[in-house]
Amino acid sequence: MSIFEYNGSALVAMVGKNCFAIASDRRLGVQLQTIATDFQRIHKIHDRLFIGLSGLATDAQTLYQRLMFRHKLYQLREERDMKPETFASLVSALLYEKRFGPYFCQPVIAGLSDDDKPFICTTDSIGAKELAKDFVVAGTAGDSLYGACEAMFKPDMEPEELFETLSQALLASVDRDCLSGWGGHIYIVTPTEVKECTLKGRMD
Amino acid sequence: MECVFGLVGNDYAIVVADTSAVHSILVHKSNEDKIMVLDSHKLVAASGEPGDRVQFTEYIQKNVALYQFRNGIPLTTAAAANFTRGELATALRKNPYQVNVLMAGYDKEIGPSLYYIDYIATLHKVDRGAFGYGSYFCLAMMDRHYHSGMTVEEAIDLVDKCILEIRSRLVVAPPNFVIKIVDKDGAREYAWRESVKPDAA
């Protein structure tokens, strides 16, 4: 089993009309055994920027701590929050630093730019950025997520429709992957508010 | 074949560990205490490579004590767990410790808590957790019988059910177990469950 599949994960972010949504599964496993069903994979960097970290849980936790540290320093120096594009470059740089001994993570970054335009991107484990205009996926259920999102995605969805679409795509995909699932966590972010919901799917 | 498991009740946390020190096919001793009292209100149950287990848990214990000496107040359970994870994570890509840790503690404002810390430094706060081959049986028993707000008696009953499962279903089951509890009155040994009386040495 690959080291990326040790803990199991599913992450997806999708763009809507002046909003975005980012969702993850909730399972923390050790290969075939499930340890917890309430694992937090998506973290808030600031009110308009979220990062989800899939892959090896220990590296996801270390990377999150390093990123929070860097962002807090940035906030102290610049007296403002980091733009999503800047943050994506920071993530990419941190990952490439460990090019020959990498973090076994695949991050998904989602944020709202200054002009309220949604921004999503993913990188591989050594920091190769992949910007997308519609959706990005990561984790053991990644292949299924690509299919489900491609089928269900429509451009310029309102937050309510985006929430429905992303929830259905996530739950359908994790049901085909034994290493991810046990419900879902979804954040819908608009310029005015952040809504956080827990999804109940097949609890297996 | 090492078995470590634990659970959290309404105002206490219990951890249980087997007490066999094994080297290949030989049982060196069967009264080895694998649950260290970290400070007055914390317990660390550790399983894994024997040398690493003792060295690492003692290192954590001494650093937790140092913090209390320097700052005049004890660490919270969450802080101690995060410190432990940090040490494991730092060592992971140099000289990894092969130790799995279940850290149980009681904090005055927060109440009891249990932290699952993998040998590769995965940290998660849990209601019930287990390591080793025994985890297959313990987690299943606890999933079936555990509910939040159990009394100490109900929890010890569940612990005994888990031990019975391990003894009857695990091929090289450890014969003896130690149970330790932490609550508002502190961390202490609760009981031993012996099916083979160990020698006096």
TrEMBL record, chain A:
Q: What is its main location?
A: cytoplasm
Q: What does this protein do?
A: Non-catalytic component of the proteasome, a multicatalytic proteinase complex which is characterized by its ability to cleave peptides with Arg, Phe, Tyr, Leu, and Glu adjacent to the leaving group at neutral or slightly basic pH. The proteasome has an ATP-dependent proteolytic activity.
Which proteins does it associate with, and in what oligomeric form?
Answer: Component of the proteasome complex.
Look up the record and report any one GO term of the cellular component aspect. Answer: nucleus
Q: Which domain of life is it from?
A: Eukaryota
Q: Which SUPFAM superfamilies match?
A: N-terminal nucleophile aminohydrolases (Ntn hydrolases)
Which protein family is it in?
A: Belongs to the peptidase T1B family.
Key words of the record? Cytoplasm, Nucleus, Proteasome
Biological process annotations from GO:
proteasome-mediated ubiquitin-dependent protein catabolic process
Where does it reside? Cytoplasm; Nucleus
What is the name of this protein?
Proteasome subunit beta
Q: Which PANTHER family match?
A: METALLOPROTEASE TLDD (PTHR32194), PROTEASOME SUBUNIT BETA TYPE-3 (PTHR32194:SF10)
Automatic annotation (TrEMBL), chain B:
- GO cellular component terms, A-Z: cytoplasm; nucleus; proteasome core complex
CDD domains named among the record's database cross-references: proteasome_beta_type_2
Q: Where does it live in the cell?
A: Cytoplasm; Nucleus
List the GO biological process terms. Answer: proteasomal protein catabolic process
Coiled-coil segments on the chain, per record:
none
Where does this protein come from, organism-wise? Linum tenue
Q: State if Cytoplasm is listed as a keyword.
A: yes
User: Could you identify this protein by its name?
Assistant: Proteasome subunit beta
- Keyword Cytoplasm listed: yes
How it assembles, according to the record, is: Component of the 20S core complex of the 26S proteasome. The 26S proteasome is composed of a core protease (CP), known as the 20S proteasome, capped at one or both ends by the 19S regulatory particle (RP/PA700). The 20S proteasome core is composed of 28 subunits that are arranged in four stacked rings, resulting in a barrel-shaped structure. The two end rings are each formed by seven alpha subunits, and the two central rings are each formed by seven beta subunits. The catalytic chamber with the active sites is on the inside of the barrel. Component of the proteasome complex.
- Please give the PANTHER family that the UniProt record associates with this protein: PROTEASOME SUBUNIT ALPHA/BETA
Q: InterPro entries, from UniProt?
A: Ntn_hydrolases_N, Proteasome_alpha, Proteasome_beta2, Proteasome_sua/b, Proteasome_suB-type
* A Pfam family: Proteasome
Q: Which UniProt keywords apply?
A: Cytoplasm, Nucleus, Proteasome
Q: Where on the tree of life does the source sit, at the highest rank? A: Eukaryota
Q: Which family does the record claim for this protein?
A: Belongs to the peptidase T1B family.
The task this protein performs is described as: Non-catalytic component of the proteasome, a multicatalytic proteinase complex which is characterized by its ability to cleave peptides with Arg, Phe, Tyr, Leu, and Glu adjacent to the leaving group at neutral or slightly basic pH. The proteasome has an ATP-dependent proteolytic activity.
